[in-house]
């Protein structure tokens, strides 16, 4: 993706982790690690984005991504406005591009875009003005680059920087998951030793997404000895009818329970991007248990988004 890098190799937009150089990715992880205290509100706000206006332009619901981008921007002293498609002229049929152009005309410089269509953020970046930056906060099933980064940071904190020793298992609805795609891009770039992907055949894509991964539908077998289990939400809003027999059946075959988790390495960690369907893809006991890094992921989300905003906009 050349659109997101300028001629000097600097990030201008962040649309995908696919093809992002390892040094660029690691620099963002390092920076997020350095500013963790400011990210968690334990140190003073930074001034790097003083005078910069940023808009969260969301055409799909969000809890974590929108609020953490908002908090990240505020902790860098930016001015932030929230655009919500459900209460704006988008309801009168105004397009995402017209919306962006109008906000650009008001001096907004950074757009954090979430949209149900694959490629929506890239399409906006192509039409954006010279000084405008677009950050993809999730487009359809394509990419969610800041989630990929925060997951990589969370794994790195837990397991160290040498990913070549790690066995990582991604589980569930990979077919509809932009998180899985961005996680896979990050894991490959960081040189992960073994990437396994597990789910019912109806939810595993056959479009090249899983190239180089060990795939299978037997969750118990795939769990053996892994260092990290990355659970995914069943994306019922993006799913045709009938891809899973029933939620009970899905839980019986692919739900992560404490008993199942014992098949993984003793110090294995569990990640989930949220929102969690408790009792479907993961039990309360595991989601809230000692091996779960779910809330650490959320905290890291603020730090990663600060690092991204600072690197692209300051
Ligand atoms: N919050 C993440 C996303 O928007 C994960 C999910 O919804 O399953 O992609």
From TrEMBL:
Annotated Aspartate/ornithine carbamoyltransferase carbamoyl-P binding domain residues: 12-157
Record: residues binding L-aspartate: 92, 178, 233
Matching SUPFAM superfamilies: Aspartate/ornithine carbamoyltransferase (SSF53671)
Domain of life the protein comes from: Bacteria
Pathway(s) it belongs to: Pyrimidine metabolism; UMP biosynthesis via de novo pathway; (S)-dihydroorotate from bicarbonate: step 2/3
Domain Aspartate/ornithine carbamoyltransferase Asp/Orn-binding, chain residue ranges per copy: 165-311
Record field: catalytic activity: carbamoyl phosphate + L-aspartate = N-carbamoyl-L-aspartate + phosphate + H(+)
Transmembrane segments: none
Uppermost EC category: transferase
GO terms for MF: aspartate carbamoyltransferase activity
UniProt key word Membrane: no
EC code: 2.1.3.2
InterPro entries attached to this UniProt entry: Asp/Orn_carbamoyltranf_P-bd (IPR006132), Asp/Orn_carbamoylTrfase (IPR006130), Asp/Orn_carbamoylTrfase_sf (IPR036901), Asp_carbamoyltransf (IPR002082), Asp_carbamoyltransf_Asp/Orn-bd (IPR006131)
Name of a matching Pfam family: OTCace
Residue positions binding carbamoyl phosphate: 64-65, 114, 144, 147, 274-275
Function field: Catalyzes the condensation of carbamoyl phosphate and aspartate to form carbamoyl aspartate and inorganic phosphate, the committed step in the de novo pyrimidine nucleotide biosynthesis pathway.
Annotated NCBIfam families: asp_carb_tr, PRK00856.1
Family: Belongs to the aspartate/ornithine carbamoyltransferase superfamily. ATCase family.
Annotated protein name in UniProt: Aspartate carbamoyltransferase
């Amino acid at each position: 993706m050349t659109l997101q890098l300028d001629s000097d190799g600097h990030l201008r937009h962040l649309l995908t982790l696919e093809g992002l150089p390892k040094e660029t990715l690691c620099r963002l992880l390092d920076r997020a690690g350095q500013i963790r205290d400011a990210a968690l509100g334990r140190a003073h706000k930074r001034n790097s984005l003083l005078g910069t206006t940023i808009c969260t332009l969301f055409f799909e619901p969000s809890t974590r991504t929108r609020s953490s981008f908002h908090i990240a921007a505020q902790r860098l002293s930016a001015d932030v406005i929230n655009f919500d498609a459900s209460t704006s002229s988008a309801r009168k049929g105004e397009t995402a591009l017209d919306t962006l152009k109008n906000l650009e005309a008001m001096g907004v410089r950074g757009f954090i875009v979430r949209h149900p269509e694959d490629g929506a953020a890239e399409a906006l970046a192509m039409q954006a003005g010279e000084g405008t930056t677009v950050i993809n906060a999730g487009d359809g099933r394509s990419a969610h680059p800041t989630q990929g980064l925060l997951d990589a940071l969370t794994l790195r904190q837990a397991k160290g920087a040498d990913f070549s020793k790690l066995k990582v298992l991604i589980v569930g609805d990979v077919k509809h998951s932009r998180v899985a795609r961005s996680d896979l891009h990050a894991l490959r770039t960081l040189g992960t030793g073994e990437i396994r992907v597990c789910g019912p055949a109806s939810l595993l894509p056959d479009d090249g997404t899983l190239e180089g991964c060990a795939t299978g539908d037997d969750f118990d077998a795939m769990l053996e000895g892994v260092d990290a289990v990355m659970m995914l939400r069943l994306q019922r809003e993006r799913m045709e009818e009938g891809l899973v027999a029933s939620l009970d059946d899905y839980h019986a075959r692919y739900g992560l329970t404490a008993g199942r988790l014992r098949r993984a390495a003793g110090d294995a960690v569990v990640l989930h991007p949220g929102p969690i369907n408790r009792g479907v893809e993961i039990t309360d006991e595991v989601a809230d248990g000692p091996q779960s890094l779910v809330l650490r992921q959320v905290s890291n989300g603020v730090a990663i988004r600060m690092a991204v905003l600072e690197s692209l906009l300051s």
